[in-house]
Amino acid sequence: MSTYSHETQRALLRARIDQLYQETGVEPSTSGNGRYITPLGELISSFNLVSKELVGLSPRAALQYLSQQGALIETTEEVGLDALAGFLYASTSYGCIFVEADDHFVRRRFSAAHELGHYLLHFQPLLLMAEQDHEYPEFTEALYRGSVDDPEATESGRVGKTEQYILQHRLPPEAQMEYEANQFATELLMPEGTVREIFARAMLRMNDDDLTAYLAREMLVSLEAMRWRLRNFGLLPLPGRRSRREGVR
């Protein structure tokens, strides 16, 4: 794991997201523009990336799709058939974020944001250096099915890479990269300011469960992710109230 404290690391991620909006010219979601849903598609398409939903997503299915689209990628029978929630392919000339088409919409958004995090935090800096060095590395990252949108999860993915280039320019350990990508997705899809603003507006008229569901709908994220976010901010449980799951004693 990174030597930074969690709070320092999250501050760095928030700064990177601010930079992301400045670089792309995409307007972030705020109360000022009347929208609370992160413009994820706009952000992804602002880079040399495309996004694609595939039924039965696996490493082999993703690479076969890229090959059929004309990408110069060699696929073999050895490429895995593991069921995935997300997959990233990135090179100096092209990149694609894949998500499992049969996953729920909010799960697909988290998977795509997770892969965008890998691209921006881990692969893009190396790809920019590679272009200057006239090198042509390729990177892949696989996010496995069954991984919940939990920012604390660290072992949900596997990274592939051009080994010769990585010998010169090291990536962080996989567990650290997965943690960072999950935290990036969380900060991007559920900005603290927006969460607190909606929470303050609705907290007096809802119980814990209804409030969590309301915020999740407003920001297009899962109940689990929003519940974790609210607890992380110390906003749940609401004082003096019980969730429906606790029931009446």
Tell me the number of structural domains.
2
Q: Would you list the SSEs in sequence order as H and E?
A: HHEHEEHEEHHHHH
DSSP, total strands: 5
Q: Approximately how much helix is present in the residues?
A: 40-55%
- First and last CA, distance: 42 Å
Measured by DSSP, the beta-strand proportion falls in: 5-15%
Largest beta-sheet details: 5 strands, mixed
Which blocks of ≥5 consecutive residues have pLDDT under 50?
none
Average pLDDT taken over every residue: 85
Shape: globular
Please tell me how large the radius of gyration is.
19 Å
Count, helices: 9
Structural class by sheet pairing and helices: alpha+beta
Provide the spatial order of strands within the biggest beta sheet. 1-3-2-4-5
Key terms for this structure?
single chain, 249 residues, 9 helices, alpha+beta, 2 domains, 5 strands, five-stranded mixed sheet, 47% helix
Topology:
Layout: H1 6-24, H2 40-45, E1 50-54, H3 59-68, E2 84-91, E3 95-100, H4 105-132, E4 138-144, E5 157-161, H5 163-168, H6 174-189, H7 192-202, H8 208-219, H9 223-232
Parallel strand pairs: 1-3
Antiparallel strand pairs: 2-3, 2-4, 4-5
What does this structure look like?
The chain is 47% helix and 12% strand. With 249 residues, it is an alpha+beta fold. It has two domains: 37-189, no CATH class; 192-232. Strands 1-3-2-4-5 form a five-stranded mixed beta sheet, sandwiched between helices. Strand 2 (84-91) and strand 3 form a beta hairpin. Helix 1 crosses helix 6. The longest helix has 28 residues, at 105-132. The model has no long low-confidence stretch (mean pLDDT 85).
